[in-house]
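Reopening: structure tokens for the adenosine-5'-triphosphate complex, inputs below.
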Amino acid sequence: MLLNALHLALREIRRNLLRSLLTVLGIVIGVAAVITLVTLGNGATVMVKQQISALGSNLVVMRPGQRLGPGHDEAGAPPFRREDADAIAAEIRGIAAVAPVVSATVTLVAGAANWSSSVTGSTNAYFPAGNWRLAQGRLFSDDEEQAGKAVCIIGETVRAKLFAGEPPLGSSLRVKSFGCEVIGVLAAKGQGAMGMDQDDTVILPLVTAQRRLTNSRAVGTVMISLRDGVSAATAITDITTLMRERRKLTEAQENNFSLMDTRQIAETLSGTIGTMTTLLGAVAAVSLLVGGIGIMNIMLVSVTERTREIGIRLAIGATGREVLTQFLTEAVVLSACGGLAGMALALLACLGLAGALSMPFLFNPGINGLAFGVSAVVGVIFGYMPARRAAALDPIDALRRE
Amino acid sequence: MTAAAPLIRLSALTRVYGRGDTAVAALRGIDLSLCQGDFLAIMGASGSGKSTLMNILGCLDTPSGGEYRFGAIAVETLNQTQRALLRRHRLGFVFQGFNLLARTSAQENVELPLLYRGLPAARRREAALAALDLVGLSDRAGHTPAELSGGQQQRVAIARAIVTDPAVLLADEPTGNLDTARSHAIMDLLTRLNRERGLTVIMVTHEEDMAAYAGRTLHLRDGLIDRDSGRDNARPLLTETAPCC
Ligand SMILES: Nc1ncnc2c1ncn2[C@@H]1O[C@H](COP(=O)(O)OP(=O)(O)OP(=O)(O)O)[C@@H](O)[C@H]1O
Ligand SMILES: [Mg+2]
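Re-run output (same inputs, fresh job):
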């Protein structure tokens, strides 16, 4: 009986190939769109998380002003000094490295080539804190750090732009108005969160940057990397207490600095991307819905058109149930084929797009199942319901419907 | 010798189409008894209710009133599925408008009722080809209705109705689209099935010489039986079927 129905269904599908293909097409597009958008969104989230963890594990960033994000108010908040960083390193337990950081965007010149890049002044602690490794050369010497010598360590992008084909070590790089010697090149990290190029960077000793670039003893941010297993929350509490003391804040005064750990930053960022993924998913769901309505239309038209066929089958002795089983089988076969084709198309699209956008591709069984399920349910319901009405008629009434 | 129960008995059968002011009484009280092995021709003007009566006899339509007994079964009491099974196992129907499945070969059309009877493919094929051969269409088995003439489609419809070897063949103008020679060939076939297999034939026709093949002729007029020739004694029934009517 079921085999019979399958046999009949397959024969009908083959006999009405165009109609069947149109039905399937709606499902294919809906399913493929949902899966592709959601899978790419997930890939983006994962990529951002990976990049943030590449920033350094257990990193806390301290900035002047009340809080990060919208409404960030730096005005009026006194800047940090190098001594603040030293105090944190000396007094807080569980600290791996503390790096005071100043930064500026300036023009770099080497030979005939010039390039605009972000220049950071910091100490050697910056490299472990930021998860940087040297590809060649060396870090700053104590003497260079204390005296503010004109030396620099450059990122891979800067090396490629300014020293293509030449050995960079020992060469001279003009930073804004002064020349400095390249003593090291950082290993490439690739694109950072939000698509910026992390390797487009030059690092100077803090004193050098303060004297020659910012012309001030202020420190913009302090990067604090914690030892493995140290709780960021505890460290933040301890640092807050210390800094309130150092900044002589009374109990009534609010913090005029803020601390945020990378996990928090990661959560904020991936939260944003998650929202975007949800939005895209909603767009995709609408397209699945539209696809579903397409299926519904074709099924409705085809059942109306096929009411006569139903009448004939009933007249020659098919029971209503047998006719329905046949239609249901047809709907299931079509929806399943459409769903599978949609999943295959989505797989190709995701692989292609993930490659083109250099994002990780993550197969998401949940969304595949969901999209497939929705299309199957829509196909089955709208293939089945109108047929059910027709199969309940007297054969002669079904035959009379034109 | 006691009379056997009739195979088909209609009493005060009515069929009203529509409701209220637009209601059309197509059948207004039909009383009729038929025995197994009877060959009945139904005649009457266009619109006199012949097709309506055939549809009800074929369990394709539900009467508005009256009684329809098929053997011991009160047809009004059957549900949809039971009526489908009655059609499947006992009845063969030839429609006035053929009603073949489109884009489906003649052979597949003829096989269809056997499929619902659950016959395996090889036996379906064999029976379908034999039935097509009986109506003279063995060379057209692979053609779809669109590739067949009206007369050929009509013969496919006849083949589909007789392929299951039903108890009763209901044929609404089975020769309506055929030339005289073909018509007589089909009537010869129906007569043979009637004589050899005891097939009960009920046939609508407009032609006197087709009606002449039948043992009994019924004239309808405005939904009522106008004239009933009664059983023709010159055409004796099968010996094993006792006279019943
Ligand atoms: N579905 C319907 N709805 C309303 N009236 C109908 C319907 N079918 C038939 N009728 C009416 O019932 C009457 C009998 O119709 P029927 O089809 O039985 O005639 P017929 O004797 O078969 O005619 P013909 O020889 O032309 O086939 C006609 O007056 C017709 O208009
Ligand atoms: Mg008619």
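Chain A touches chain B at residues 1, 4, 8, 15-16, 308-309, 311-322, 392, 394-397, 399 (CB under 8 Å). The two ends of chain A are 29 Å apart (CA to CA). Marking as resolved unless the reporter disagrees.
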